[in-house]
Write a structure and sequence with these properties.
210 residues, alpha+beta, 2 domains, elongated
Length: 210
């Protein structure tokens, strides 16, 4: 295989990968772009969510068998209440437990008394705009302990998807440079766009050092 043939095949493969990865990521990119706009422009009336939130408090009944460890206790309560989500802010004593369960657009704060077998569940729900805003930043990260891994399966899948999107965007940008490089002699605007992009990004990086 000659050098020119190899370059031709690599160029062809790059274009195909660029197209198909772009098609795969298009809805994810739109989702993150639109939710990012919602985060940046919280004053948009049509996307109001906080004033339209729904809150309610429910009295719950729980039955905790003796001899369970903390993880089993939480799983038992979630199973009995039929709740799913990312568990955070766990505060457990021999007689009670307080914790929160969250998924995009919904948060439940739960207090359970082991001796009485009762408790309180406070729910907070957002509309679709609130869910989109939450989804943009939802990753199950524990602010107090960065080493704690997500405990909900869908959170792990979502985190993996975000990593895949980030890698895919890096590839798309690199493959775009490669395709532009092939026609750079006839594409002055490419130089201007590249320089402007690097200058703006470099300026923001500089500001981080201040």
């Amino acid at each position: 295989m000659t050098y020119k043939t190899l370059i031709k095949k690599l160029t062809y493969s790059n274009r195909r990968l660029h197209i198909h990865i772009g098609l795969f990521l298009v809805l994810f990119i739109w989702l993150f772009s639109f939710s990012g706009l919602l985060l940046n422009h919280g004053n948009w009336k049509f996307a109001s969510f906080w004033d339209e939130r729904k809150e309610k408090t429910i009295e719950i009944t729980v039955s905790i068998p003796a001899g369970l460890d903390s993880i089993q206790v939480l799983k038992t309560i979630l199973s009995q209440l039929k709740i799913v989500g990312e568990v955070n802010n766990v505060k457990m004593t021999p007689d009670s437990v307080d914790f929160s369960v969250a998924y995009p657009g919904h948060v439940s704060n739960i207090h359970a008394d082991f001796k009485k077998g009762t408790g309180i569940q406070k729910e907070l729900s957002y509309n679709i705009w609130g869910k989109l805003r939450t989804l943009h930043t939802f990753n199950g990260a524990n602010r107090d302990n960065a080493d704690v891994e997500p405990n909900w399966l869908l959170t792990r899948v979502w985190r993996f998807s975000m990593d895949a999107i980030a890698v895919g965007l890096i590839f798309l940008s690199v493959s775009s440079w490669i395709m532009w490089y092939k026609i750079r002699q006839n594409y002055l605007w490419g130089y201007l766009a590249l320089i402007a992009g690097f200058a703006l990004a470099g300026w923001f990086v500089y500001l981080l050092k201040l």
